[in-house]
Amino acid sequence: MLHEPSAPTAGQIQMLREKARFIRLETIRLIEIAKVGHYSSVFSCAEIFASLYYDVMNLRQGQASWAGRDRFLMGKGHAAVGLFPILADRGFIPRELLDGYTRLGSPLGDHPDMTKVPGVDFSSGSIGHALSNGIGMALGGRMQKLAFNVFVMLGDGEMQEGQVWEAALFAAHNKLSRVVAIIDRNGYQLDGKVDDVMGVESLRDKWAAFGWEVHEVDGHNLHDLTWLLRRLKADAARSKPACVIAKTVKGKGVSFMETEPGWHLGYLAPSDARVAIEEIMSREI
Amino acid sequence: MTQAFSPDSWQYRALNSVNPGLDFLSDALIELTQAGHPVVAGSADLQYSNGLNRYAAAYPDRYIQFGISEQNMVSAAAGLATTGCMPFVATFASFLGLLCCEQIRMDIAYTRLPVRLIGHHTGISLGFYGTSHHATEDISTTRAIAGLTVVSPADGHQLASAIKASVDWPEPIYFRIGRGRDPDVYEKGHRFEFGKAIVHSKGSDLTIICCGMTVEPALNAARQLLEEGYSVGVIDMPTIKPLDRAAVLEAARSTLVMTAEEHNVMGGLGSAVAEVLADAGAATRLYRHGIYDEYSLIAPPTALYAHYRLDAAGIRQVALEQMKR
């Protein structure tokens, strides 16, 4: 590593914490409009979103299609309700769009659509494609001499899709070191615990065996997560793609969601939403 | 010890390297690259089957070997296209049209990215390799994907001109091509227009609408039928989607319209033509000739074409039967 980046300061962490809180609150607000949505899928990756969009990624405020921007792709596209408020906050889409979330004709649905939403770097919704899309982008960036990084957030259940491993082979073989895959390891998928539905462990060994540099981190610890991502981005000497296994808690930030996996998809009536909001407002993550 | 091989022995790479029919794709891509287009070619362990080894040798930095990972190839091609590259990715038509159907829909058509998919060895052209390698459903699957253009060139010259014309075509494209051994129908420099049929001849008794490898035998069949006193027209329909509706309705002036395709009669060119005729309320009878909703047999390609009556003699025979019905 040529320039070891500095660790995030207390002030930076506080800012990121507020952004993660904003993402959780906006998720509740938008799901109230839709009357259904993926709360806990966003809550497990709210810190990952915050760290990437407000610290790690090279972005230009208001310039969604700046060619040099770092790219972000979401294998777990159902967490898009947490991404849209960020895109508005970064000036890529008008804030008013959020108010019509999922309404007839809205560009904003449960999954992100790049043809409708500026700032969405690639559409998703069918689990397992995103890493392939991302490695294509990284390869294109290398060919077109554009020095951008590609961050691909994957669900842990997504590891069950065979195409992920095709992409993993390809990225290592082609030394796509600008690719960083972040696995939101919250342990749950629709039908239950990932380990019960179709075990994916050992993730560390699997990704290492596929030729990736593997890191494990607490996905809610903004300091450790952000510092790791900063270092991976700055590491120009690395020849391998990097995999970050972010250990997270499904529904993090709202106690009754942390203990009940059914909140993967659901709706909180206003009285219950108030309980969740109060906890998000008062709790430090 | 060096083995002295009989001149009758052959091996795959060497044989394919001297198949001039496989040069069309690479040569067209080389020409586009020389003209400054940001071409990127990719294949999934089949560069000697589609001839892209020639492109790979000319532009090793612009050729991507994906290995046996077709779905990854299609999705990655979409990612490449977002960076301004012009990706052409190729594998067997059976794999593209079926194995990668969802990647094509989600990552290429839904996203409207200008990716060019090349499905080669269409229909039953892989002969004795068997049903797993036959592509008799790929028109059906790709035609049903919104925003995807579907092109089935009749020979290498039409393929080359369609590839070159594709730089000005904004939609993603699925090209379904043969095995590089198709007889010439057109000449070098043939002009290709997306969405335009090529009317070879008009006839009052019968019009044969065909695409891909059936064009040459259909022209031969029509020639014989003309000599036998029938008025037979032939229309080459290289763009299956968007279909040239006007050409279909023009063909409906004949007593009988017959489609000929190396594909299941369900969902393919015949179905596309049927939709136009039914929508327009045309009274003309249509006969859809092709593979009749069954799994094709194992045999060398020429034997299969004869068996399924997709060669000139077979098309003539089917046409006669239908005209006399």
UniProtKB/TrEMBL annotation, chain A:
CDD domains in the cross-refs: TPP_TK
Keyword field: Thiamine pyrophosphate
Organism lineage string: Bacteria, Pseudomonadati, Pseudomonadota, Betaproteobacteria, Burkholderiales
Family per record: Belongs to the transketolase family.
Key word Transferase present: no
Domain of life: Bacteria
Gene3D superfamilies from the UniProt entry: 3.40.50.970
Cofactor(s) listed: thiamine diphosphate
Keyword Cell membrane: no
Domain Transketolase N-terminal: 20-260
Organism of provenance: Pollutimonas bauzanensis
InterPro entries: THDP-binding (IPR029061), Transketolase_N (IPR005474)
Protein name per UniProt: Transketolase
TrEMBL record, chain B:
Pfam families listed in its UniProt record: Transket_pyr (PF02779), Transketolase_C (PF02780)
Entry-linked Gene3D superfamilies: 3.40.50.920, 3.40.50.970
Keyword set, alphabetical order: Thiamine pyrophosphate
Domain of life: Bacteria
Alphabetized PANTHER family for the sequence: PYRUVATE DEHYDROGENASE E1 COMPONENT, TRANSKETOLASE-LIKE PYRIMIDINE-BINDING DOMAIN-CONTAINING PROTEIN
Positions of the Transketolase-like pyrimidine-binding domain: 19-184
Keyword Cell membrane listed: no
UniProt-recorded name of the protein: Transketolase
Cofactor: thiamine diphosphate
Similarity remark: Belongs to the transketolase family.
InterPro entries listed in its UniProt record: PDH/Transketolase (IPR051157), THDP-binding (IPR029061), Transketo_C/PFOR_II (IPR009014), Transketolase-like_Pyr-bd (IPR005475), Transketolase_C (IPR033248)
